[in-house]
UniProtKB/TrEMBL annotation:
Listed transmembrane segments: none
Residues covered by the RSE1/DDB1/CPSF1 C-terminal domain: 793-1097
Name of the featured protein: CYFA0S09e02828g1_1
Subcellular location: Nucleus
Cellular component annotations (GO), alphabetically ordered: spliceosomal complex
Length: 1130
């Protein structure tokens, strides 16, 4: 008996999360320039400013299959580079070294310090580093602190000693930092709360004492001692180290007294070991006077001869704080930017704002603050009402933005004939926006102009081999050719020597300084704008297809003959002695690039009407002799041979819309074929360049780019479907593309081939709550500080209508319902007045609007409706643990039935198909119900075995539902066929006994995986034309992912074997086991980790060989299988 499921999913992340846990800066590459390392909970990214453009460039991004808790950089004295300290749920203290030449991180140490998982006693919550890199302190939320002593050995390699403990029972650590003490014993400061005196009290205690505690590592005795502790304000939450100046022996050159800046509600304090106490109030705007202001991020910046602090409040305001030698704290308003988790100031004069949500910003300093300051030097603090007025950015200027889409509250997948788009409701209050994500390469348009008629083909060409840039732009129409010059001005050339009364088949710069034009009636050789030679085919015979290099030319004739030419030593194009007759009509030809050290391309690739590709030799000893042949699935209408990633590749465009690529070795043998369906039209191919590497352009229903910088990637290009295109290089535009479509000519660039998801944003009025799609419109429910409903037209990308609600009204959810009794659709909006996050509200009701957002009526409810769906021509609402069915009335909605569900507590999601309803509960997972029309009642018949906290769900089919919970799990639950048939008989269901205080039957948990993000929405549909149907999901932290179903048992078996082998041979950077990570709360089941499997392509060859031997497949076959999953679904 087999226990293997017929269902297995492939989980693949399309866009990684954006919510960062922290950032740091240092010389990680060992060079003088600084890099920024930013970390999300499962990815580490290295960024570096581009000195020429001022933009941030991503140098490296590595996924970590663990939950990263904290990161920090440190540098050992005398070392030429910074190292990265990482703590994670693996329970290891990880030290990483950046190896940029090999595009990787090297794990130097994985020192176990606690059990795996995130626990309050696990000392990985914070990392505090001695500024001189001598010690690293790991702090837990409660009790435990570990100090690691770092050093170098005789080979200048980093060493780490066994940890020293600094534990204090019943003490909570709020914030911990390393202090500047020069080369005295390393010291650390921590905000702590001792709850020992309160733990036995039953009543709530709100007056815990906060202490600032100083710890010192005695390097001589190898012990950690608590050196000093003093009481600080109860609201203290943030610390910054103060530089220790030359008087104290500092090597920083910044005069400073040492100690720490302590930040509490509405106040900034200075404290040190010697009892100095200085305080200053945090200025507020007029609107903030009744609210507490907290510092949430900050940075200490040291300059030659001075230093200052930048502190950001929870309102986004940045204040500059100075500590002059006269021991006064001076504070002044600096600027206002989005609230950050980390602020990085680079020595080169840039500021990186690692925001909590929304886009990340990169600023350049213009000046260092205002003259208007506030100062205080009182030891006994008394609150002062300091006020300031916000202004536009004065001291910093934004020069780059890294797009981000977190948090995502809802998403909708919209698919048309050519592309799929994902609309995401993102952002909070001022950053609220509707994000439009489209799978494809974004372009930067340089110019677009009209043409005199519909163009078929376009070429660019140089006039001599020595030219650096293209000189002519040649456009082919029906029976005519247009020649334009490329320079400061694009002008028509009348004396080019080209036959403009012919339809051009190809243009090629040939030999040293000649130009060849191939057209249906012959070949024209032009030199210095004059025709120097012309080759004509026999009478009645036409040239049909051609291929060329700088020294070779091959043409096919309408009588199926193949003619081959070469350039001789006198720079003349000479026909080879013999012609070759092919068995059927030739449909495509290609001569590959000339390899280094050779004078000709060694192979000619020929495609014919019989769906055969032949590789012929061009060697003078056996010209046009067959080397190898291969049958194809369609007629090759276009062929392109070029080097990609150092290997010679044959790219084929077939008449059935399929693109195929196969590799060609030096002996002429073909291997490692990859295919992808691009559209219903025949595929035409061309070539462009990016940073000296070849990129293949494919033209079908859409325009595609095929690149292989590290791995083969086929991505659509977000440009109108081009008929033809080619590379474009001029003085002003390098690595560009010129294309033609209809009566248009367009020149554009593709800036980043790695970023294959285009992101556009539309600003919203407030925090978006829900997206509801109806035809070509989206209804957006905004529910932040104010509530609104906006009607968005997906065709025009404009807002067609909007309506504002009263200030005390909060939108809970919306839905579009087609009422059968009226024959019309209406927008239903669930609203609560005076709603609080605890669930308390004054009144709850439903607003009913027309599709133009005109109010029809209002219906009062007894509780909040958290979910509304259309069901059999009526509206089905979930109110607490009741299902209510409403029909349209004249003055309000009319309740037709109410079903009390004693197996659930609070319905938050509803989905329906036919006669079946699925509800998702806040605590009690998923329940299937059937509707008995005679009894007018919803009857539960099957539910889950686990009490999941549902955040989103969607019915995949009549018996299956996919869902996510608030702990980051995604699962697929299925009702068996037998139970499903039983569930249709509501009378039989009512007689069944309840199982485990629930429904009579239980759902099968078919699939399960941990994605470490809270799924807020699921959608089902196609992401690419001709691809397989997939499930997409969006996560709160900005994750966009896809679940791809395997179609064959052989694929399931193969990928499970590959995943198992990789788990054995591929260690994680932090030492976390992939199986444990993906099964964090429940064992992973019938889901292959596609993110992990795709790292196979980045492994070294020896490791690939070991894994391939374990799986029993070749390395090429494994890479092909991995490619096929993505190619067939995205």
């Amino acid at each position: 008996m087999s226990f293997e499921s017929d269902i297995c999913l492939y989980n693949l992340t399309l866009r990684q999360r954006d919510s960062s846990i922290g950032s740091c800066a240092g010389n990680f590459s060992g060079k003088k320039s600084q890099e920024i390392i930013t970390a999300t909970s499962n990815r580490i990214t290295v960024l570096k400013p581009d000195t020429s453009t001022g933009k941030l460039v991503s140098l490296l991004s590595k996924q970590v299959f663990a939950i990263i808790r904290s990161i920090s950089n440190f540098k050992i004295a005398g070392s030429g580079k910074d190292y990265l300290a990482v703590t994670s749920d693996a329970g290891n203290f990880t030290v990483l070294e950046l190896d940029l030449p090999n595009n990787r991180f090297i794990t130097l140490f994985n020192e176990p310090y606690h059990k795996s998982g995130i626990r309050r006693l696990s000392p990985g919550n914070e990392i505090a580093v001695d500024p001189n890199g001598r010690a690293v302190l790991l702090s837990a939320v409660e009790r435990n602190k570990l100090v690691y002593v770092m050093n170098r050995d005789s080979d200048n390699q980093l060493t780490i000693a066994s940890p020293l403990e600094a534990n204090r029972s019943k003490v909570l650590a709020i914030k911990t930092i390393g202090l500047e003490v020069n080369y005295e014993n390393p010291q650390f400061a921590s905000i702590e709360v001792d709850y020992g005196d309160y733990e036995d009290q039953n009543e709530d205690v709100n007056d815990f004492t906060h202490s600032l505690t100083f710890y010192e590592l005695d390097l001589g005795l190898n012990t950690v001692v608590r050196k000093h502790s003093e009481t600080i304000p109860q609201t203290s939450n943030f610390l910054l180290p103060v530089p220790c100046g030359p008087d104290s022996g500092s090597t920083s050159g910044s005069p400073g007294p040492g100690g720490a800046i302590v930040c509490a509600a509405n106040i900034v304090l200075y404290r040190n070991l010697y009892g100095d106490k200085i305080s200053v109030s945090i200025p507020k705007t007029d609107k903030q006077q009744d609210e507490d202001v907290y510092v949430v991020a900050g940075v200490t910046h040291q300059m030659k001869g001075g230093f200052f602090f930048l502190l950001q409040t929870n309102f986004g305001d940045i204040f500059k704080v100075e500590l002059p030698p006269d021991r006064t704290l001076v504070i002044s308003y600096f600027d206002t930017i989005p609230v950050c988790t980390s602020i990085i100031v680079l020595k080169s004069g840039f500021l990186y704002a690692d925001t909590e949500y929304g886009d990340k910003y990169f600023y350049q300093f213009e000046k260092l603050g205002r003259d208007e300051t506030f100062a205080s030097s009182t030891e006994n603090y008394s609150p002062e009402a300091l006020t300031f007025t916000r202004s536009d950015l004065e001291n910093i200027t934004p020069i780059d933005v890294i797009p981000a889409i977190n948090p995502i509250f809802d998403s909708v997948l919209s698919t048309d004939d050519t592309s799929a788009k994902i609309y995401a409701a993102s952002g909070i209050n001022d950053t609220a926006s509707l994000k439009l994500l489209q799978y494809g390469l974004p372009i930067t348009e340089v110019v677009e102009s009209d043409l005199p008629g519909p163009a078929h083909r376009v070429w660019t060409t140089r006039l001599t081999r020595a030219d650096e840039h293209d000189k002519y732009l040649v456009i082919s129409f029906i029976d005519t050719t247009l020649v334009l010059s490329i320079g400061e001005n694009v002008e028509e050339v009348s004396d080019s020597g080209l036959a403009t009364n012919e339809e051009t088949l190809q243009i090629q710069q040939i030999g040293r300084e000649s130009l060849a034009q191939i057209h249906g009636n012959g070949i024209r050789i032009i030199k210095d704008s004059e025709v120097v030679n012309e080759w004509l085919p026999p009478a009645g015979i036409k040239i049909t297809v051609s291929a060329s290099t700088n020294r070779q030319l091959a043409i096919s004739l309408s009588n199926n003959e193949l003619v081959y030419f070469e350039v001789d030593e006198n720079d003349r194009l000479v026909e080879w002695n013999e012609r070759k007759e092919m068995p059927s009509r030739i449909t495509s030809l290609a001569l590959g690039e000339i390899p280094e050290g050779l004078i000709r391309s060694p192979f000619l690739v020929v495609g014919d009407q019989d769906k055969i590709m032949r590789v012929l030799s061009t060697d003078p000893s056996n010209v046009l002799e067959l080397v190898v042949m291969q049958s194809l699935s369609g007629v090759p209408v276009s062929t392109l041979v070029c080097f990609m990633n150092g290997e010679l590749c044959v790219n084929l465009g077939l008449d059935n819309g399929v693109f195929a690529r196969t590799k060609l070795d030096a002996s002429g043998q073909l291997y490692e074929t990859r295919t992808k369906y691009l559209g219903s039209k025949p595929v035409l191919l061309s070539k462009c360049m990016k940073n000296g590497e070849n990129v293949v352009l494919a033209f079908s229903n859409k325009t595609w780019a095929i690149s292989d910088f590290n791995n083969l990637k086929i991505s659509s290009v977000l440009v109108p479907p081009l008929n033809s295109g080619t590379m474009f290089n001029s003085d002003d535009c390098t690595d560009g593309v010129v294309g033609v479509y209809k009566r248009k000519l367009v020149i554009f660039t593709i800036d980043d081939y790695a970023n294959d998801i285009s992101l556009n944003s539309l600003e919203l009025k407030s925090t978006p709550k829900r997206l509801t799609q109806h035809g070509d419109h989206l209804f957006i429910s905004d529910s932040g500080k104010t509530s609104h409903i906006e009607k968005f037209n997906t065709d025009t990308n404009d807002m067609d209508a909007q309506i504002d609600l009263a200030e005390n009204q909060k939108i809970i959810t919306t839905a579009v319902v087609n009422f059968e009794s009226k024959g019309e659709s209406y927008v239903l909006c669930s609203v609560a007045t005076n709603y609080q996050s605890s669930g308390v509200f004054s009144e709850s009701f439903i607003y009913t609007y027309t599709m133009d957002l005109e109010l029809v009526h209002k219906t009062t409810l007894s509780g909040i409706a958290y979910s509304i769906v259309a069901f059999q021509g009526k509206a089905l609402l979930g109110i607490k643990n009741n299902l209510r069915l409403y029909d349209m009335g004249l003055k309000q909605l009319l309740c037709k039935t109410t079903s009390f569900l004693d197996t659930v507590s609070n319905i938050v999601r509803i989905d329906a198909q036919g006669n079946r309803v699925v509800v998702g509960d806040l605590r009690e997972s998923v329940t299937f119900l059937t509707f008995n029309a005679k009894l007018n009642e919803f009857i539960p018949f099957v539910d889950d075995t686990l009490p999941r906290h549902i955040t989103s769900m969607k019915m995949v089919d009549y018996n299956t539902v996919v869902g996510g919970d608030k702990f980051g799990n995604i699962f697929l639950l299925r009702c068996s066929d037998e139970v499903s048939r039983t569930g249709e008989d509501s009378t039989l269901v009512r007689t069944k006994d309840k199982l485990y205080n629930g429904a009579p039957f239980k759902l099968d948990n078919v699939c399960h995986i941990f994605i470490e993000d809270i799924a807020t929405s699921f959608n089902k549909g196609l992401l690419s034309q001709g691809g397989r149907e997939v499930i997409t999901y969006a996560g709160l932290q900005g994750t966009l992912g896809v679940l791809v179903p395997f179609l064959t048992r052989s694929d399931i078996k193969f990928f499970k074997a590959l995943e198992k082998a990789m788990r054995s041979y591929v260690p994680d950077l932090t030492g976390r086991m992939n199986l444990q990570y993906r099964g964090y709360y429940q064992p992973v089941k019938n889901v292959v980790d596609g993110d992990f499997v795709e790292t196979f392509n980045d492994l070294d060859e020896d490791l690939k060989k070991k894994i391939s031997d374990e799986v029993g497949k070749s390395v090429g076959d494994i890479m092909g299988k991995i490619f096929d999953v993505r190619a067939l679904s995205i």
